[in-house]
Amino acid sequence: MSPADDPRRRLLLLGDGLWAAAALRHLAVIHDVPAVVERTCPTDDSLARAAREAGLPLIRLDDVNGPAALEWIRSLAPDLLLSVSYDQIFQRTLLSPPHPPVLNLHAGHPDRQRGRAVLCWQLLEGVRTLELTVMRVTRGIDRGPVLGVSQVQIGADDEYGQALERVCVAVPAVLDQALAALAAERTLPGIPAAQPVYYPRRRAGDEWLDWSRDSAGLLRLIRALAPPNCLAATRQGERELRVRRAEACPDFPAGAAGVPGAVIGKDPGRGLLVKTGDGALWVRELWTPAGDSVPQLEIHLSDRFGNGTLAELESLRQRVGRLEERLAALEGVADVG
Predict the structure, then answer these.
(1) CATH number of the domain that 45 lies in?
(2) Given this model, what pLDDT does residue 4 score?
(3) Prediction pTM value
(4) Cα dist from 89 to 7, 59, 94, whole Å
(5) In angstroms, rounded to a whole number, what is the distance separating the alpha carbons of residues 54 and 64?
(6) Which residues have CB under 8 Å from 80's CB, separation 6+?
(7) First-to-final CA distance of the chain
């Protein structure tokens, strides 16, 4: 019987998060999954819970390319490996025979979007259609042949969690398509003349809101960083706050003056009206970094939000300048003495 006639595969899943859990729940019913590998520092426990539900062992590998890990993988004798938001790069030895093929589930089309945190970056761009793809992993970043593609529609007001739920729903079908294509040794054509964008890993500091930006860009950042992400951040004086929800204020008068970040209105039903670079936003929910809700009563009209970075840098520059002047004066006195 050929691989194309027998759809059951022995498959090792390596991943993280809700869509890895969605992939596992689907694959464990149809295929033989001997074990699940999660990140050394998982972002949540969703994959661990899915592994427990399926009665599968869950392990972590310090170095997926190391001799011990390679020997362990060989002992399982998988037909293929599937990576879903796994954070280690597969190197030449693991990608070469006699090791099985490695597939990657990717939240974008590799002819257009490559790299890390692709779903988050595309929400920041305001996309309405996301291409969920499965590709074969080769040397180079997201350059392997595509085996499956599914289009996922993103709502105009979708937050990250809602978009991720839509992706999870699409996972089973695109995996089935890719595994059938792999068995038939069939790949999908690329996109001619496309220039891919390499998205970087999102880092600490990317979450800070710059209220001088346009309202639409601020809304996209707030929605892209909604749970299960870290939430967009701002400051009220020395206090760090997180913006959980915000909405547009389309009736704000165009060109109205004001200081970006200033609280210029309050409404019990709509929230805090905060000035932006080109208008204003209704901030509906504020949280502390610990996840506690901040009552609207704690915020007053004329309070200002901002990260304060530029002001802090300018203050430090002035202080260093004064210290240098004092040091020069002291050195002059010493020379005279």
Answers:
(1) 3.40.50.12230
(2) 46
(3) 0.80
(4) 28, 17, 10
(5) 23
(6) 9, 11, 12, 100, 101, 102, 103, 182
(7) 98
pLDDT of residue 3: 43
Count of domains for the chain: 3
Phi and psi torsions of 192, nearest 5°: -60, 145
138 lies in the same domain as 282: no
Q: Does one domain contain both 32 and 140? A: yes
Residue 70: give the domain boundaries: 11-198
CA distance 24 to 73: 18
CA atoms within 13 A on the CB side of 120: 22
Report the C-alpha gap between 59 and 62 in whole angstroms: 10
Strand bridging mode 11-15 / 80-84: parallel
In a domain, 159, yes or no: yes
- Which string of DSSP letters, residue by residue, matches 274-289? EE-SSSEEEEEEEE-T
In contact, 141 and 127? CB cutoff 8 Å: no
One domain for residues 160 and 261: no
Pairing assessment for the beta strands 232-236 and 129-136 based on DSSP bridges:
unpaired
User: Helix H segments across the chain?
Assistant: 17-30, 46-54, 67-76, 118-125, 160-183, 215-224, 309-336
Q: Are residues 95 and 230 in the same domain?
A: no
pLDDT tens string 288-313? 999 999 999 899 998 999 865 555 56
